[in-house]
Amino acid sequence: MMPLFLVSERGMDRGWANVFVASLGFWDYCGLVAGQSVDRLGWRKTLMIFLLASGISTVLLGLFPAWH
Which residues contact 45 (CB under 8 A, 6 or more apart)? Predict the structure, then answer.
C-alpha cells in the first residue's frame, strides 16, 4: 500500500516509490523485531509501541510536501 500511496497521492515515480519502500529494510525485519519484543515486553506493551510508531509515521507522511 505504501508505494501506491506515494505514487497516487504524492506524485512520486512508481520506480522510485518501490526503491524507497524496499530500501527502508524495516519491512524485512518487522516480524523478527515484533517477536522479540513480545518475548521481552509482553504483547500489550509491544502492541502499544507498534501502534504508536505507525500513527506517528502516518502523521509525518501527511506533513511532507508532495514529491514532483
Answer: 37
